[in-house]
Design a protein that fits this description.
Layout lengths: L1 E4 L5 E7 L3 E6 L20 E6 L16 H18 L7 E5 L1 H9 L7 E5 L6 H6 L2 H10 L3 H13 L6 H10 L10 H13 L12 E6 L4 H13 L3 E6 L6 H4 L1 H13 L1
Parallel strand pairs: 3-4, 3-5, 5-6, 6-7, 7-8
Antiparallel strand pairs: 1-2, 2-4
Length: about 270
């Protein structure tokens, strides 16, 4: 594990595999950094996978408990920008983010010097959906009652099972989910993250001069597919690819398919 520091002195811990062109992999939601384990072995040897621990989602980089929802995205963007500035190499790094990590990647690329961006279903809500979004409030109500597991279950239900799932099926699914119930410890951070998502408004124009590959899947939440298209339209240099039969967990669910598309994009 290597470390660097952001401008405010926060320690940034990350793992680097390889000596090639840095490809920074930004996980989302409650996924741990090893979310990228199915992806890394498939990357071309010309790339060096750089996997940081998101603030509050790892043992080396813990978010301060007083961090507000309004600060969450700004804090994570600053972490990515500091990491990008610190990485050695002949070429500027590439950012590859999933979900909330994809939102962070796109926002960081507005100011950081990067070579390209890959964004799998950025955690952005369409305006109509955002105005009605209440996930953060529902999570907060459960936390106020000390119901930490229920708070996290509501997040899993909406993001990973958008077509609905009854409580018995959800409980059985969670029992097979590798990060359950350890992810319950992240409940407060996930709540702050969701508030940040609910408050984020996609601008009409995203000032990212580098090429961006926006990815989505037909089996994920409809609102994320809609947002992926909106992000694509807001970028000046973007390609949109929709995978048939793949859900929101695309990079880990179908790594060969996703990496093949990423590789083709980077080589073009």
């Amino acid at each position: 594990m290597q470390t660097t520091r952001s401008e405010d002195g926060t320690e940034i811990a990350y793992e680097r595999r390889g000596e090639g062109h840095p490809l920074v992999l930004l996980h989302g939601g409650m996924a741990p950094p090893d979310y990228w384990e199915p992806v890394v072995p498939l990357l071309d040897e010309e790339f060096a996978a750089v996997v940081p621990q998101r603030p509050g989602f790892g043992t080396c980089l813990d978010a301060p408990t007083e961090t507000s929802a309004g600060d969450v995205l700004e804090r994570e963007v600053a972490v990515v920008q500091s990491l990008v500035d610190d990485l050695d190499g002949d070429k500027a790094p590439i950012l590859f983010g999933h979900s909330y990590g994809a939102l962070t990647a796109v926002e960081a690329a507005r100011d950081a010097t990067v070579d390209a961006v890959v964004a799998y279903e950025p955690a952005i809500l369409p305006d109509e959906f955002r105005r009605q979004a209440d996930l953060a409030d529902r999570m907060a109500a459960h936390l106020d009652r000390g119901e930490r597991r229920e708070a996290v279950k509501r997040y899993v239900e909406q993001v990973l099972h958008p077509d609905g799932i009854d409580d018995a099926e959800l409980a059985a699914w969670l029992n097979e989910w590798p990060v359950w119930p350890a992810c319950v410890d992240l409940a407060e951070e996930v709540l702050r993250m969701n508030r940040a998502v609910e408050r984020y408004r996609l601008p009409d124009h995203l000032a990212v001069e580098e090429s961006v590959l926006v990815l989505t899947g037909t089996d994920g939440p409809d609102f994320l597919r809609e947002s992926a298209r909106a992000v694509h339209e807001a970028l000046p240099h973007s390609r949109l690819v929709e995978f048939d039969g793949i859900s929101h967990g695309g990079p880990s669910e179908a790594p060969e398919t996703v990496v093949a598309e990423v590789d083709a994009f980077l080589r073009s």
